[in-house]
Amino acid sequence: MKLFVVLVCVLAGCLAEKPRPCTSPPLLTGALILSTQNEKLWLYAKYFYDALGQKVRLTEQGNYQKKPFTYDALLLFREAAMYEIDDKARTCKKKPLRADFHPMEIPINSSLVGQAVLGSSSGVGQGLLVNTWTGNLSGSTENYVTTFTEIGCIPVNTKYQTQEYGWVLTDFFNNVIGISDPGQLNPPDYCPTEMTANGEQSEDFTSFFFKLQ
Questions:
Q1: Which of 36, 83, 186, 205 qualifies as a cystine partner to 165, CB 3.0-4.6 A?
Q2: Which of 42, 70, 67, 40 is nearest to 58 (CA)?
Q3: Neighbours of 152 (CB within 10 A)
Q4: CA-to-CA distance for 139 and 13, rounded, in angstroms?
Q5: Within 10 A of 206 (CB to CB), how many other CB atoms are there?
Q6: Which pLDDT tens digits describe the chain residue by residue (213 residues)?
């Protein structure tokens, strides 16, 4: 009997796998809330994420330095273009997007902090198993801590350091695999085909979405 218990324990240990860095599903729709340590910026955004077509749409509303703002941006990485959209006024600006597309993922050089259950592990459906990772942002010494679900590799939250804002916290929620409205990832028919005259990429808050990348 003791030998049987030992064999079962050994088998369980062999089957248990240590969490590894992962990549989120290529098509995601959801929402996020972002806030900064110095209270300069707070925003709520809905997002459409298409890693296959390398497209992202973010519709944001929030406060920057205690002033309210709304912002709607469509980022088309393969075209190296971003569209600033005002659907109510039916206006649109096309500007260069000087950034490479990177999928939502755990950076391969991240270090595992540990696993945890959000909620309760007392019963089925009462908790969510997540993995928390840490590391340095690419090309810098700034730290990040990020949490993704063990099953599905869905983002839960991310915290990272910046010089301007201090720690930046992003919470993801209402994530759904797939694109509920594919039309949101195409420029509206009133958008121009040519870049704006100044040719400058605007300063906006869409970069937070890909900060870890």
A1: 36
A2: 70
A3: 11
A4: 37
A5: 21
A6: 443 444 344 334 434 578 999 999 999 999 999 999 999 999 999 999 999 999 999 999 999 999 999 999 999 999 999 999 999 999 999 999 888 888 999 999 999 999 999 999 898 889 999 999 999 877 677 899 999 999 999 999 999 888 888 999 999 999 999 998 999 999 999 999 998 766 565 555 555 555 544
Instruction: Provide the β-strand partners of residue 83.
Output: 74, 94
- Reference 95, options 115, 81, 116; nearest CA is 81
Give the global pTM: 0.84
The CA distance from 135 to 126, in Å, is: 30
**158 touches 146 (CB < 8 A):** yes
The size of the chain, in residues, is 213
DSSP 202: P
